[in-house]
Structure formats: C-alpha cells, structure tokens
Amino acid sequence: MNILSIQSHVAYGHVGNASAVFPMQRLGVEVWPIHTVQFSNHTGYGAWKGRVFDGGMIDEVMEGIAERGVLPSCDGVLSGYMGSADVGHAILSAVERVRAANPKALYCCDPVIGDVGRGIFVRPGIPEFMREQAVPAADIVTPNQFELELLTDIEVKTIADAHRAIEALRDTGPKVVMVTSLSTNETPGDAIDMMASDAKGAWRVRTPKLDVSLNGAGDAIAALFFTHYLREGSAAAALAKASASVYGLLKRTKEAGSREILMVAAQDEFVTPSHQFVPEAI
Description:
Layout: E1 2-10, H1 17-26, E2 30-39, E3 50-52, H2 55-67, E4 76-79, H3 85-101, E5 106-109, E6 114-115, E7 119-120, H4 126-137, E8 140-141, H5 145-152, H6 159-171, E9 176-182, E10 191-198, E11 201-208, H7 217-232, H8 235-256, H9 268-271, E12 280-281
Parallel strand pairs: 1-2, 1-4, 4-5, 5-8, 8-9
Antiparallel strand pairs: 2-3, 6-7, 9-10, 10-11, 11-12
Helix pairs in contact: 1-7, 2-3, 5-6, 7-8
C-alpha cells in the first residue's frame, strides 16, 4: 500500500508527518511524505525555528513524484494541518492528480481547525476553506468534537446530536466520518468516546480517559484509522484497531511522564496493541 501524506513536520517530537508517517510505516505502508512546514519542534513549546512552505512547493514536489510514473499505485492521500488556503489548494490539486491516475484512491482529510478549551487555532480563512472545499472533496474526515460542531453548526450534547452532525457532514461529500474524541451526556466522567460512521452504520468505542494532553495524538489517530480503513473497508474495524493502538500509545506515554508521544518506544502498540476495544453499534 502507498499513501501520500501532506502535513506539517518537526525535527524534534511528533506532530503532523512526524506523528503520522511512522505508524503507517510500522503497519507496512509505503508513505510518501510532503511537508507543508519544517519546524524544529511543535508550536506548543512557545518557541520554534523553521519555515512555512507555500503551495508552489507542494505542486513542485507533486510534479516530481508524477514524473516517476508512480501515481497509479497511490492508494490514498492524507492531509492534516493546513497553514494557508494556498497550501490547501495545492493539497486538493494533489488529490485530483492522484484520483486521475487511480480512481480507486481515497482522500482522508483531518480537518484541523481547533479543539475544546483552545478554540480555533488556525489562520483566518482556514475554517471556511475546510468547510467549503476540503471536507466536500474528501472520502474520509476525522474531526474532533469541536471541529464536528463547527463544520456542521450542530452542538453535540447527546449521541443523537452526534448522529445528526455526522450525517450532516456525510451529506456534504465524505463517505466516512470518524470523530476522534467525543464526550456527551452519556459518556462517563472517567471515559472518552470515539465514533465512526459509514454507509453500513455507526459505531462507538469507549476507552478509559487518560489525564494527558499531547500534541500530535490526533495526527496519529487519523493515520491509523485511514490505514486500517483502506485495508478493511470497514469503519467499525478501523475504529477498533485505531483506538486500541492510540490508547496503548498514550497510556505508555503517560506512564513515562513524557511531553512527547513515545512513537518509537511504544511502536509495538501499532501492530499488537496491549488493549482491545469492541465497537458498539449505536
């Protein structure tokens, strides 16, 4: 399997491609990463060095890949944080090129906009670009609860609300929606839910809540879910495998007291997770 991953990148730590690429490789995927930024570390540290690339650079790298004649073997495109609409347009152009070469290829868009407690943290214009262009172009989207509400204008307090919001999002284009973190009035205080929906139905996985906040976890979840969906063709199966790996990864990281995800030290969690969760049809 070959996946083109267009995301930000850091030299130290694990966010963007530095969080998404290795889990996919560990699962046996050949990943073609294109970086939208090259930073020393993620911005959560408050200080960083490096630069943001423009859409022209992404177009240029895509042209070079196309010249190798390999686009027909690309099974999917994964995108995450978009620093500007210029970069977003270049990503959608890359998706079009891949689909033209391989009509079976899927596009997974992690619509990074913001999060509960932090609000919107992307540049002005990005939420609108996600809603109006990126999400409708995607086959799979992986929002968190905040992004699900923002993209659909539906406040999610109950599972029924979550169903309505997910279906509203699917109506805009994506066949599959996976909500990476969900807390409703039915979610126990010591747990967190993940929910996925496709044409076959909707499923929830509930895992113990870990008192940890780590940059890059969402990037890893999206990559794992996308990989498993491409292989299984099932949102339920992909949800079960992705949630198991991410829970084990975050649990190991918390136990170590690390500020960065233990992507390498806990890599066995991607292949043989130490915890298993059964998806519940809802």
